[in-house]
TrEMBL record:
Name of the molecule in the record: Dolichyl-diphosphooligosaccharide--protein glycosyltransferase 48 kDa subunit
Annotated family: Belongs to the DDOST 48 kDa subunit family.
Protein's job: Subunit of the oligosaccharyl transferase (OST) complex that catalyzes the initial transfer of a defined glycan (Glc(3)Man(9)GlcNAc(2) in eukaryotes) from the lipid carrier dolichol-pyrophosphate to an asparagine residue within an Asn-X-Ser/Thr consensus motif in nascent polypeptide chains, the first step in protein N-glycosylation. N-glycosylation occurs cotranslationally and the complex associates with the Sec61 complex at the channel-forming translocon complex that mediates protein translocation across the endoplasmic reticulum (ER).
InterPro entries (alphabetical): DDOST_48_kDa_subunit, OST48_N
Assembly, per entry: Component of the oligosaccharyltransferase (OST) complex.
Protein localization: Endoplasmic reticulum membrane
Annotated pathway: Protein modification; protein glycosylation
Keyword Glycoprotein in record: no
GO CC terms of this entry: oligosaccharyltransferase complex
GO BP: protein N-linked glycosylation via asparagine
């Protein structure tokens, strides 16, 4: 439960960065089930006036810009396991999007794919090896015995 609280706090703070941005937002997903499991977040964005376009992260028609004009001002990537983006979307196009003032929010997980590892590295973050856990020594669940539970 504590992890969900922190995730919601991080998402809320991250979305605050979108406050002054235009409302056109591309949301990339691993699968369309995420659209349902994260519906509260997406409905909150819609209520705030954001126009969300949902696509699969490996969709062969993905494109951020054409003739130097961006179609979106915000990019949300909820596809932690993506190995390679589809269409003309690449790490280079996303970093250029950021450099040109675009807003990007992306999430990782235990099995973060190589595409997001590389994007994180370009943004100055290091994502550790697969199946690693993050330990916060200041904010932790006191009921956790500290035993590692393997997930397969």
């Amino acid at each position: 439960m504590l992890i969900k609280y922190y995730l919601c706090s991080i998402l809320t703070l991250s979305l605050a960065a979108f406050a002054n941005a235009s409302k056109e937002t591309l949301v990339l997903l691993n699968n369309l089930v995420i659209k349902e499991t994260h519906s509260i977040l997406f409905n909150t964005l819609k209520e705030r006036g954001y126009h969300l376009t949902f696509k699969s992260a490996d969709d062969p028609t993905l494109v951020l810009s054409k003739y130097g004009k961006y179609f979106y001002e915000n990019l949300i990537i909820f596809a932690p396991t993506v190995q390679e983006f589809g269409g003309s979307l690449s790490i280079e196009t996303i970093t250029q999007f950021i450099d040109d003032g675009g807003n990007v929010l992306f999430t990782g997980g235990v099995s973060t794919g190589s595409a997001l590892r590389e994007l994180a590295a370009e943004c100055g973050f290091e994502v550790t090896e697969e199946n690693s856990s993050l330990i916060d020594h200041l904010n932790f669940d006191a009921s956790d015995s500290g035993k590692v539970i393997k997930t397969y």
